[in-house]
Design brief:
This is sulfate adenylyltransferase. It comes from Cellulomonas terrae. It is an enzyme of class 2 (transferase). The protein has 13 helices and 21 strands. Helices cover 23% and strands 29% of the residues. With 479 residues, the protein is an alpha+beta fold. Bound molecules: guanosine-5'-triphosphate. The site of guanosine-5'-triphosphate has 18 residues, from helix 3 and helix 5. Guanosine-5'-triphosphate binds next to helix 3 and helix 5.
């Protein structure tokens, strides 16, 4: 098992970014088939934005010379950094930082080998932009379609199609247009609204950071110009206010005998002193009377700031509760339906006891149903009604035979989960910051799957199953 994926919470790496920098921060992920030039492109971005340390650069120059010289092999840069990070630990995603005068970037670098779905889900779940690479000579491949599908599933707001290796097709406009049109049409069919296609050469640098003199027919932005100008952070601010409580702070010092605050990160939206808030799932109401930070009090806080909120009333608030605006309608329930990407070697078992993590909340749960499965290899969807599924599969079955309706590593499926306690059920489609969840194996803490609450892409792709519930069975199972 690698490091736990981060669909819900910012990683250690992103957390160190200061509040100020966060405002101008773009999180991006890359996806490409093997040899499309992902490492070279990342190396080029780091190199041309001067984000490479001198010693790393001389190591790469020396290695290039040792290989017989020529153009600096920028893939060595990325791969070298990767190797550094991978020593001794299995890591799914490495994060690279670079910045320009206008913006800072965190790039999730997901190695493109076998566990691509898992890696891409991990990298793209927090990304606001995905770069999908294709080799201009090969055009749109099955793998490209898979990457587009996962990007759509995770609702990454912006997608860039990087048509790489344009130098190998003589910077031919027709080749570029044909690939761009095919990809854009496919993306549209998946509901991806915003695709920007850029003809580039990672190796020679054309249209990556610097404008190419060999694509006079192209009047769009270079890759970096686009990365610098694409709108960021708006989504988190435009979503309604959500504050998952991480810690209840009660110092009880002589100085502040009655202090009681709720620390956490504003997951989405904005909160101000004086706002009426409701604590969920309890439904208790109060008013924000203070917003505290290490740097002093604020009158207003917005996503993704970390703050401590104080309330007017001594209501019962615990870790895992969510503060929301009182005036809004928020769904709370204990039946969770959604789409999951299965991330574990062990397969799904119907009726299995699980832990579900949503925000800062962890609750016990039961996997009730897998009623559709997307095969990312073939991009076909199988859908089943839920009627006899539970009886067909023994919950204690540990045989190596995979039941036909199980989810295995990299599979994407639609599930129904019964929770032991009610939680806030924000639809991922409209609440990307709070509508994600993780399924965890209570036995050993393994992350089994990353999921999205509510209707997702699978509903668009799948025939509608005539699912029926089997509540009696669940009553028997004790949830
Ligand atoms: N001619 C040409 N070659 C390129 C270009 N970009 C990458 N290459 C070459 O394509 C090969 C594969 O490039 P990598 O960057 O290692 O590609 P990758 O396999 O997608 O990267 P990872 O899977 O992330 O390791 C290398 O030999 C690169 O030098 C390009 O724009 N033009």
């Amino acid at each position: 098992m690698g490091a736990a994926p981060t669909i819900l919470e910012p990683t250690e790496e992103t957390q160190h970014v200061t509040e100020h920098a966060t405002r101008d921060l773009l999180r991006l992920a890359t996806a490409g088939s093997v040899d499309d030039g992902k490492s070279t492109l990342i190396g080029r971005l780091l190199y041309d934005t001067k984000s490479v340390l001198a010693d790393q650069l001389s190591a790469v120059e020396a290695a290039t010379l040792a290989r017989g010289g020529g153009e600096v092999d920028l893939a060595l840069l990325t791969d070298g950094l990767r190797a550094e990070r991978e020593q001794g630990i299995t890591i799914d995603v490495a994060y690279r930082y670079f910045s320009t005068a206008t913006r800072a970037f965190v790039l999730a670098d997901t190695p493109g080998h076998v566990q691509y779905t898992r890696n891409m889900v991990t990298g793209a779940s927090t990304a606001e932009l995905a770069i999908v690479l294709v080799d201009a000579r090969k055009g749109v491949l099955e793998q490209t379609r898979r990457h587009a599908t996962i990007t759509a599933l995770l609702r990454v707001p912006h997608v860039v199609l990087a048509v790489n290796k344009m130098d190998l097709v003589d910077f031919d406009e027709a080749t570029f247009r044909a690939i761009a049109d095919e990809f854009t049409a496919y993306a549209l069919s998946l509901g991806i609204p915003d695709v920007t296609a850029v003809p580039l050469s990672a190796l020679t640098g054309d249209n990556v950071v610097d404008r190419s003199t060999r694509t006079s027919w192209y009047d769009g932005p270079t890759l970096l110009e686009h990365l610098e100008s694409v709108p960021v952070g708006r989504d988190a601010l435009s979503e309604p206010f959500r504050f998952p409580v991480q810690v209840v702070i009660r110092p009880r010092t002589a100085e502040h005998p009655d202090y009681r605050g709720y620390a956490g990160r504003v997951a989405s939206g904005v909160v101000s002193v004086g706002d009426e808030v409701t604590v969920l799932p309890s439904g208790k109401r109060s008013t924000v009377v203070g917003i505290d930070t290490f740097d002093g009090p604020l009158t207003e806080a917005h996503a993704p700031q970390s703050v401590t909120l104080r309330l007017a009333d001594d209501v019962d608030v615990a870790r895992g509760d969510v503060l929301v605006p009182t005036a809004s309608t928020v769904e709370v329930g204990s039946d969770l339906e959604g789409t999951v990407c299965w991330l574990a070697e062990k397969r799904s078992v119907l009726g299995a006891r699980l832990l579900v993590r949503v925000g800062t909340r962890t609750v016990r749960a039961l996997l009730r149903e897998v009623n559709a499965r997307l095969d990312v290899d073939t991009l076909t969807v199988e859908a089943w009604d839920g009627v006899d599924t539970l009886h067909a599969v023994d919950a204690t079955d540990t045989s190596s035979d995979i039941p036909p309706r199980a989810l295995t590593l990299n599979a994407i499926g639609r599930v129904k989960i019964r929770l032991a306690e009610p939680i806030v059920l924000d639809e991922y489609a409209t609440h990307r910051r709070t509508g994600g969840f993780l399924l965890v194996d209570p036995a050993d803490g393994t992350t089994l799957a990353a999921g999205m609450i509510g209707a997702t892409l699978l509903d668009r792709l799948a025939p509608t199953p005539s699912a029926q519930d089997d509540d009696d069975w669940f009553a028997g199972a004790g949830i």
